[in-house]
Amino acid sequence: MSDLQHVKAVVLNFYRDLDSAAPEAAVDVLKRYTASDFLWRGSYPFNEQNSAVAVAEKFWAPFKAAFSPIQRRQNIFFAGLNRVDGEDTAWVCSMGHLLGHFHEPWLTLEPNHKMNFLRYAEFHRVEGDRIAESALHLDIMNVMIQAGSRVIPEATGVVTITPGPQTQDGLLFDPHPPEEGKATLDLIIRMIDRLVATGVRTTVEDLRLDWHDDMLWWGPAGIGASYTFEGYLKGHTRPFEAGLEFIKHNGHVTRIAEGHYGGFFGYPSLTMRSTGGYLGLLSASDKPAEMRIVDLYRRDGDKLAENWIFIDHLYFLKQLGVDLLERHKRMHAPTPT
C-alpha cells in the first residue's frame, strides 16, 4: 500500500503543477515529471506520442490556450497493481472533467465563450518518481455538443455533464485494504469475460449476475447515460448490438482496482464491423474498425453499481470514413459576405 501511496503522490503533484502552468510552460512540467522514453496514448486526433515535447505541443499547449483557466474536477482517483502484467507495474487512474472558459479556437471548433467541461479518464504508469506511460481518453464529442455542433445526432441515452459516484467516495487519496481492490477487480473481470464470451451480447439474465437492478451507466457522447436494466438495454446495448458486429476482443493495457473502484483501458479494446445505423452516422461496411475504450466501475457489495465508459468515437468513425471534426468545420463555416 505504501508504494501505491507514492505513485498517487507523484500524479497529484504532476496535476498540481500542470494545471496551474501557462500554455507555454506545460512542456517544462511534462519534462520534469515524465521519463525520457515517455509513452502517451491519446484520443483522436492526438493519438500516440513518444515524448513530453510532443504531448505538450499536440495537446496541452493548444488546449490550455483555448480553455482557460483550467480547473480539474476529479470524481474518481485510485491506484493499483496491473493484473495484465502480473502486478509488476503500478498505475494511477483519474477521472472527471477539465473545466475551462472556451475563448479561443480548438481543433475545428469555434469558441462559445462559455464555461465548458471536457470529460476525461487518464491512466499513468509510475516508475520511481517519474511517469513512464500515460493514456488520456477525452470525450471530445461532448465538448462539440456543448459548443453547439449540429453534426452529432440525438443520443439514445442522456448526454450530460457526468456526475461522480452516488456515494461521493471516489477520491481514494488514502490507502485501502488490498482485499477490497481484489474483490472489485475479480468481479469486473468476471463480468467482462462473460460479455466477451457472448460476442458482446447482453440480456437481463446476464446483467442480474453482476449488476444491481438500479445500475447507472455513464456513457460517452453519441450514446449517453442510462439508468436501470431497462434503460441500459434501451439506451446502449440494443442500439450497439443492432448497429455493430463483434469481431474480436484485443485485450487491455491495464486492469487495476483499489477499494470499491476499478477499471481498465484498451488501445484498442474491440474490433467491430458496422452493420448500419450506429450513432445515426454509419452505413453498413465490410471494413473492421478499432474501438479504444475505458471502463471504470464502482462495486457495491457483491455486484457492480455504476460504470463510467469512454469510447474514442472520433477515432472509430474516422476509420469508417466519417470525420466528425471535418464535418463540423464544413457545417459551421462562416457564411461568405
Q: Whole-number average pLDDT?
A: 97
Helix content: 25-40%
Shape: globular
Based on helices, strands and strand pairing, what is the structural class? alpha+beta
Strand content: 25-35%
Annotation, overall tally of beta strands: 13
Alpha-carbon distance between the two ends: 64 Å
Q: Class of the largest domain, according to the CATH hierarchy?
A: Alpha Beta
Order of helices and strands: HHEEHEEEEHHHEEHEEEEEHH
Number of helical runs? 9
CATH topology of the largest domain: Nuclear Transport Factor 2, Chain: A
Number of domains: 2
Radius of gyration: 19 Å
CATH architecture heading of the largest domain: Roll
Topology:
Blueprint: H1 2-20, H2 26-33, E1 34-42, E2 48-49, H3 52-66, E3 71-81, E4 90-101, E5 115-127, E6 130-138, H4 140-146, H5 178-197, H6 204-210, E7 211-218, E8 226-227, H7 228-243, E9 244-249, E10 254-258, E11 261-274, E12 288-300, E13 303-311, H8 313-319, H9 324-331
Helix pairs in contact: 1-2, 2-3
Q: Would you kindly provide a written description of the structure presented here, covering whatever features stand out?
A:
This protein has 337 residues and is of the alpha+beta class. It has 2 domains: 2-146, Nuclear Transport Factor 2, Chain: A; 178-325, Roll (Nuclear Transport Factor 2, Chain: A). Helix content is 32%, strand content 34%. It is built from 9 helices and 13 strands. The strands form 2 sheets. Strands 7, 8, 9, 10, 11, 12 and 13 form a 7-stranded mixed β-sheet that branches. It has a 6-stranded mixed β-sheet with strand order 2-1-6-5-4-3. Helix 1 packs antiparallel against helix 2 (26-33) and helix 2 packs antiparallel against helix 3 (52-66). The longest helix has 20 residues, at 178-197. The protein is globular and about 60 Å long. The mean pLDDT is 97.
